[in-house]
Amino acid sequence: MSNGILVFAEHRDGVLNKTSLEAIAAAQSLAGATGQTVNAVLLGSTLDGLAQEIASFDLGKVIAAENDKLSSYTPDGYTDGMEQVIRAEDPKYVVMPHTYLVRDFAPKLSARFGKGLVSDCIRARVDNGEITLTRRIFLGKMDADVSATGESPVFVTFQSGAYRGDQAAKGSGARIEKVTVEIGEVRMTPEAPFQEVKQAVDLSKAEIIVAVGRGIKSKDNIVLAEELAKALGGDLAASRPICDAEWLPIDRQIGSSGQTVAPKLYIALGISGAIQHLVGMKNSGTIVAINKDPEAPIFDIADYGIVGDLFEAVPALTEEIKKRKA
């Protein structure tokens, strides 16, 4: 009989991916509704330090699956390693973060079990013991509920920001179980991970973001947003039109064709709220919108809104923040 929830914890070069903490939070939420135990699995060659880090969370145990062939990521190696752990543990649910790495090997992994993969979910609910997963479709224009039926395990990935990593509950020290997994033929030689250009920024790690849209009117006015971001200790971002006009580099773009973010605070300046932008930031903790159009869609998801001229509101807001910091 299948039991428990198994979370895949992703890391690179010994550094845990923050979305792994979000996956743990998602699994803990699911466990609270089903009464099941959450276990975590790490893949690699030397995992002592990472296993200790993960063991600090409220988990049943941490499985450190080791093999020298897992020192660098390959889809063949990770699929073999995960398959062995899953068959040994027989979990009901396998929860993973929706990252590029997971998207690469998870379909292959689920296929080995004759199962589909419910990917990029934004929430899960349990009614009478049955789980329903929700994922966005058509660039976020609609939500689709997916019922997980049939034999276990259920493979699911959660969208970045669907759950907050800081909500992952700490524990008193989970048991660490080291196992050696057998890895078959690895048909590729790993190369160095792709690196963005040096000036690129990873906005997915930002806790505070100030984003500008068409309402900023000109490139010269972006300094207003920069001053606000600086006062808050945040990062500057933009909607697609701003980057298309080359007022800000493409690595600052938020939305379906840019980055997906979930900061604690997101301030939208002169952004109307096209769906292509909303899908990239709607999971933010607190959303503040400043726009002169009271009918702007951004206000539908904003926690706080100012209907007015951003050229008056932003300098006043920046000045007030500076005073409070002084």
Overall number of structural domains = 2
Rounded to the nearest angstrom, the distance between the terminal CA atoms is: 61 Å
CATH architecture of the largest domain: 3-Layer(aba) Sandwich
Into which percent range does the helicity of residues fall? 25-40%
- Sketch the topology as an H/E string, one letter per element: EEEHEHEHEHEEEEEEHEHEHEHEH
What order do the strands of the largest sheet run in, or round the barrel if closed? 9-8-7-10-6-1-4-5-11
Average pLDDT across residues?
91
**Rg, alpha carbons:** 22 Å
The main sheet comes to: 9 strands, mixed
CATH class of the largest domain: Alpha Beta
Describe the structure concisely.
It contains nine helices and 16 strands.
List keywords for this structure.
16 strands; 326 residues; elongated; Rossmann fold; 28% helix; five-stranded parallel β-sheet
Question: Could you please describe the fold and organization of this structure?
Answer:
It is a single chain. This protein has 326 residues and is of the alpha/beta class. The chain folds into 2 domains: 176 residues, 3-Layer(aba) Sandwich (Rossmann fold), CATH 3.40.50; 123 residues, TPP-binding domain (Rossmann fold), CATH 3.40.50. It contains 9 helices and 16 strands. A 9-stranded mixed sheet has the order 9-8-7-10-6-1-4-5-11, sandwiched between helices. Strands 13-12-14-15-16 form a 5-stranded parallel sheet. Helix 7 links the parallel strand 14 and strand 15. Helix 3 crosses helix 4 and helix 5 runs parallel beside helix 9. The protein is elongated, with a radius of gyration of 22 Å. The model has no long low-confidence stretch (mean pLDDT 91).
